[in-house]
C-alpha cells in the first residue's frame, strides 16, 4: 500500500457536516412528532447536535492554531475506507436529512433512522479519534463519541417505551 496523506481540516469539516444533518433531522422529527416524550427527546438531541457543531469548530480552531493544516500519513486503504464511510452516510446533507425525517410516518420509524445515524456517527468519531495525534484534540473527539453513544442509548430507551405502549392489533 502506498503512503498518502489526509487533511485534518477536511475530516473535522466532515464531522461538522454530519452534525448539521443531525440538527435538520431532529428538528424535523421534533416538528412532526405527536408523542410529547418523543418530541422532547428530539428537541434535546437537536440541541446536542448544535453543541457538537460548536465543539467541533473549537477542535478545528485548536488544531489549525497548533498545527496549521496538518496532514496525516495514511495508506491508500485507510483513505479509501474513510471515503467509503463518508459516501455511506445516512444523510448526504441537511436537506437530505430533513427530507428523510419528513418521510417517516411514526416516531418509532424516526427513532430507528436516528439510531442508525447515531451509531454511524460513533463509528466515524472513533475513526477520527484514532487518527488524531494531538492528545487534547483526540480527547475532545472521544468525548463527542461518548455523547453520541448516550444519544443512541436514549433513542433505544424511547423506542422500547413507545413499542410497549403501542396497542396490539
Layout: helices, strands, pairs:
Elements: E1 3-7, H1 8-32, H2 36-67, E2 71-75, H3 76-87, H4 94-102, H5 107-131, H6 135-165
Antiparallel strand pairs: 1-2
Helix pairs in contact: 1-2, 1-4, 1-5, 2-6, 5-6
What does this structure look like?
- By secondary structure, this protein is mainly alpha-helical.
- It contains 6 helices and 2 strands, in the order βααβαααα.
- It has helices at residues 8-32, 36-67, 76-87, 94-102, 107-131, 135-165; strands at 3-7, 71-75.
- The protein has a two-stranded antiparallel sheet.
- α1 packs antiparallel against α5.
- The longest helix has 32 residues, at 36-67.
- It is elongated, with a radius of gyration of 17 Å.
- The N and C termini lie far apart (56 Å).
- The mean pLDDT is 84.
Task: Please give a quick description of this structure.
With 169 residues, the protein is mainly alpha-helical.
Based on Cα principal axes, name the global outline: elongated
Report the uncertain regions. Answer: none
Run of helices and strands: EHHEHHHH
Tally of strands: 2
Radius of gyration: 17 Å
Question: Major β-sheet, in short?
Answer: 2 strands, antiparallel
Structural class: mainly alpha
Main-sheet strand order equals 1-2
Helix segment tally: 6
Strand content: 5-15%
Q: End-to-end distance, in Å? A: 56 Å
> Helical residue percent?
over 70%
Mean pLDDT: 84
Amino acid at each position: 500500500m502506498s503512503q498518502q496523506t489526509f487533511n485534518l481540516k477536511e475530516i473535522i469539516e466532515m464531522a461538522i457536516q454530519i452534525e448539521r444533518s443531525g440538527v435538520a433531522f431532529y428538528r424535523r422529527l421534533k416538528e412532526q412528532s405527536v408523542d410529547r416524550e418523543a418530541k422532547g427527546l428530539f428537541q434535546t438531541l437537536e440541541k446536542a447536535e448544535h453543541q457538537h457543531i460548536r465543539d467541533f469548530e473549537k477542535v478545528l480552531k485548536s488544531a489549525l492554531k497548533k498545527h496549521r493544516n496538518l496532514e496525516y500519513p495514511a495508506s491508500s486503504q485507510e483513505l479509501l475506507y474513510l471515503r467509503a464511510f463518508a459516501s455511506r452516510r445516512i444523510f448526504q446533507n441537511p436537506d437530505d436529512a430533513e427530507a428523510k425525517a419528513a418521510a417517516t410516518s411514526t416516531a418509532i420509524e424516526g427513532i430507528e433512522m436516528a439510531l442508525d445515524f447515531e451509531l454511524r456517527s460513533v463509528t466515524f468519531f472513533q475513526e477520527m479519534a484514532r487518527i488524531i495525534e494531538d492528545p487534547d484534540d483526540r480527547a475532545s473527539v472521544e468525548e463527542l463519541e461518548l455523547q453520541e453513544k448516550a444519544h443512541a442509548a436514549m433513542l433505544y430507551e424511547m423506542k422500547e417505551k413507545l413499542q410497549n405502549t403501542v396497542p396490539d392489533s
